[in-house]
Hints:
Elements: E1 23-24, E2 30-31, E3 34-37, H1 39-42, E4 47-49, E5 52-54, E6 57-60, E7 64-66, E8 87-89, E9 95-97, E10 108-114, E11 121-131, E12 138-145
Antiparallel strand pairs: 1-10, 2-9, 3-6, 4-5, 6-7, 7-8, 9-11, 10-11, 11-12
Amino acid sequence: xxxxxxxxxxxxxVFVDISTTGNRSxxxxxxxxxxxLSAINLAGFTFPFYGTTYNTLSFSTNALIRFGGATDEYIxxxxxxxxxxxxxxALWDDLNIDNTGTGTASRAVFWQxxxxxxxxxxxxxxxxxxxxxxxxxxxLQAALSLNGAIR
Length: 151
């Protein structure tokens, strides 16, 4: 049964700010763009997701993480038909990462491996992003653990 290994639970929020230590994406900038982390980028980190273990993944400026291929889709739905490949919707909306002009140095998607051994995580952080056409900036992140946990 799909999803049998996943359940939702309340957790105490933990935010590990990687905006000064993480790898800044040079591809996921502006509106509707993507970046892919290869097995080399992930340095042995694998993520089990619905019965398949992945050693690569893609993420978009629209806060969508995909396995098996990148997408810059910004129109979200109920996830039963789109996206077609395995995905984690950290927020999934039409987001924009302003990368030009004054004060934009912190506006980016960052990623970083943190922890060691069984406690290793991949954190992807959308830092100081905004919904397209709006002026309020916010930050969010997704943390993927070796055991398949998603925070």
